[in-house]
Write a structure and sequence with these properties.
Length: 61
């Protein structure tokens, strides 16, 4: 993978996380009610932003 393309993908990941994940009310609520592990599992498996982040991760590998 080209270095420029990798940097662009990482930039997209950072932008997504800053825009949607930082301060996410749903994540905070789930973490408080069900625990950190359950909240993380929700973000990975059910959140549309998490799914999009996984797709970027696959492209980076």
């Amino acid at each position: 993978m080209k270095e420029g393309n990798r940097r662009e993908l990482l930039s997209h990941v950072e932008t997504l996380m800053a825009q949607y994940c930082d301060g996410c009310f749903l994540h905070q609520h789930l973490k408080k009610e069900c625990g950190r592990r359950s909240a993380h599992r929700f973000c990975i498996s059910q959140c549309t932003v998490g799914e999009q982040l996984q797709e970027y991760g696959k492209k980076l590998s």
